[in-house]
C-alpha cells in the first residue's frame, strides 16, 4: 500500500483509492492481455492488503478500549461499561452505510460544493446540480451523471471511467487531466469546456461515446 508504519485508517483508505485509480483494469487497453492480467493481480493484492490493514486497525481499537473493563472486573459495574464493543461496531457500520443509503443522490443540489478527492463511484447523481462544484481528483467510476448540471465545475484530474454523462451540462467546465475513458457523453453540452492546452488535448477519451455531443467549439460531434 506504500504506507508508513502506523498509518491511520484514513490514510489507508486514501492510499487504496490512489492505487485503484492507477491500476484499475479499465484504464488498460483491452487488447493488452499482459498488462490486463498484471492490473488484475495488482488490484487483487491491493484489496487484500487493504482488508488486512483495516482488520488490524479494528483489532487495535478493540484492544485499546479493553483495559478499562479489565480494571473494573472486580465490581459488577464492569458488565455495564463492557458494552463499548457494540458501540465500537457502530462507526464501522456508519462508514459503510452512507454509500448504500445515499447511493441515490439524483436531483440533489451540490452547487459550489467542495467534493475534491471524494469517492463517488457508482453513485446516482442524475439531474443533480453540481454547477461550480470542485470535483478535482474525485473518483467517479461508473457514476450516473445523466442530465446533471456540471457547468463551470472543476473536474481537474477527475476519474470518470465508464461514467454516464448523457445530456449532461458541461458548459465551461474544467476537464483538464480528466479521464473519460469509456464514458457515455451522447447529447452532452461541452460548449466552452477546457480540454486543451494550446494544441495539446489533455483529456483522456479512449472509447468515449460522443455521438451528438456539442463540442467545446460549438460543433456537434458526428
From TrEMBL:
Which parts of the sequence belong to the J domain?
A: 1-66
Q: Where is this region: Disordered?
A: 44-122
UniProt xrefs under InterPro entries = 5peptide_repeat, DnaJ_domain, J_dom_sf, Pentapeptide-BTB/POZ_domain
Q: Where is the composition biased (Basic and acidic residues)?
A: 44-54
User: SUPFAM superfamilies in the record, alphabetically?
Assistant: Chaperone J-domain, Pentapeptide repeat-like
- On the tree of life, the source organism's domain of life is Bacteria
Q: Which PROSITE patterns match?
A: DNAJ_2
The record's annotation in Gene3D superfamilies points to: DnaJ domain (1.10.287.110), E3 ubiquitin-protein ligase SopA (2.160.20.80)
CDD domains, A to Z: DnaJ (cd06257)
Amino acid composition bias (Polar residues), ranges on this chain: 72-81, 89-105, 113-122
Cross-referenced PANTHER family, in alphabetical order? BTB_POZ DOMAIN-CONTAINING PROTEIN KCTD9 (PTHR14136)
Q: What is this protein called?
A: Molecular chaperone DnaJ
Q: Which organism is it from?
A: Nostoc sphaeroides CCNUC1
Amino acid at each position: 500500500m506504500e504506507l508508513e508504519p502506523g498509518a491511520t485508517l484514513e490514510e489507508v483508505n486514501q492510499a487504496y483509492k490512489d492505487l485503484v485509480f492507477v491500476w484499475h483494469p479499465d484504464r488498460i487497453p483491452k487488447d493488452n492481455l499482459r498488462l490486463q492480467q498484471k492490473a488484475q493481480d495488482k488490484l487483487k493484492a491491493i484489496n487484500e492488503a487493504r482488508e488486512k490493514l483495516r482488520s488490524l486497525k479494528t483489532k487495535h481499537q478493540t484492544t485499546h478500549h479493553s483495559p478499562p473493563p479489565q480494571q473494573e472486573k472486580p465490581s459488577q459495574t464492569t458488565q455495564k461499561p463492557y458494552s463499548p464493543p457494540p458501540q465500537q461496531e457502530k462507526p464501522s457500520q456508519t462508514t459503510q452505510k452512507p454509500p448504500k443509503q445515499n447511493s441515490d443522490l439524483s436531483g440533489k443540489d451540490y452547487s459550489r460544493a467542495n467534493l475534491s478527492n471524494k469517492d463517488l463511484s457508482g453513485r446516482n447523481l442524475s439531474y443533480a446540480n453540481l454547477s461550480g462544484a470542485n470535483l478535482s481528483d474525485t473518483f467517479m467510476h461508473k457514476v450516473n451523471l445523466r442530465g446533471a448540471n456540471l457547468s463551470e465545475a472543476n473536474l481537474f484530474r477527475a476519474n470518470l471511467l465508464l461514467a454516464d454523462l448523457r445530456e449532461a451540462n458541461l458548459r465551461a467546465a474544467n476537464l483538464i487531466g480528466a479521464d473519460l475513458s469509456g464514458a457515455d457523453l451522447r447529447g452532452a453540452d461541452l460548449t466552452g469546456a477546457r480540454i486543451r492546452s494550446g494544441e495539446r488535448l489533455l483529456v483522456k477519451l479512449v472509447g468515449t461515446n460522443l455521438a451528438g455531443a456539442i463540442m467545446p467549439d460549438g460543433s456537434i460531434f458526428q
